[in-house]
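Changelog note: in this version the structure field was regenerated for every chain. One regenerated record is shown below for reference.
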Amino acid sequence: MINSLFGIKYPIIQAGMIWCSGWKLASAVSNSGGLGLIGAGSMYPEVLEEHIRKCKAATNKPFGVNVPLLYPQTDELIQIILREDVPVVFTSAGNPAKYTQLLKSHGRMVVHVIANQKFARKAEEAGVDAIVAEGFEAGGHNGSEETTTFTLIPLIKETVNIPVIAAGGIATGRQMLAAFALGADGVQIGSRFAASEESSAHQAFKQAILEAGDGATDLTMKQLVPVRLLKNSFYKKVKSAELAGADREVLKEILGRARAKKGMFEGELEEGELEIGQVAALIHEVKSAAEIMQEIIEDYAKAKDEINYLSIG
């Protein structure tokens, strides 16, 4: 279903992560049979336009753009997407009704990212073609409900009648198979591709991902926008402030400006914001996007064969 919807070989979508998902990663994933996404959340309009054009030159396969709806320049980003004829748009962190009909009236496929039943229903009512159901395990901005992927996917499948793409805690073929067993029609993978060769993340951040063990991340800043971070000096400041009862204004002051860019793009590992999922503990090597895709497909096939040998009763 997802394959035919997007015109791709494998039901794998590379998440449009800020400071990681530029044209090099998106085109590499698309060329490998998945759907690559350019992450517009960390791009000025003119930068997004450049990345779209470079992606077009690097692949003749479908690709898309992820647009977080909480930024002030969203209108400009949407107009660039329409002008550059990008076929697929993923929206997140905002009202799905705001741009869905505009995009669909221009023949675009629209997917919205949700973390609960309420927004799943809103997205379906808005007319999106599919939704991404993102569990608590995911890196970056997350749902305040803290619903895990294992619970969220079947919950959303019984809530809506459109395709559901599972996200959060998925980096291997075995995990992809588990998502399908829960009812997902496709998967969106972020953290594994953040640590790819084509990711625009700083090498120091990629190394930090490889060194992350279990318990290395935490969902924090719930009074602002919940975000899962690697634990570093910045994280500790935020956590201490939260434990001391800090309000939104105090947390905004601690966060400051360009904190994610400082950490993920510039490699400031102590004072930067390092957004990554729990599944970082399973990532041990930086590989090319093509190698990652092949590894996922092979792991999926192996796990599927193993399960075929199991019986109940």
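Spot check on this record: The domain at 2-200+280-308 is CATH 3.20.20.70 (TIM Barrel). The two ends are 32 Å apart (CA to CA).
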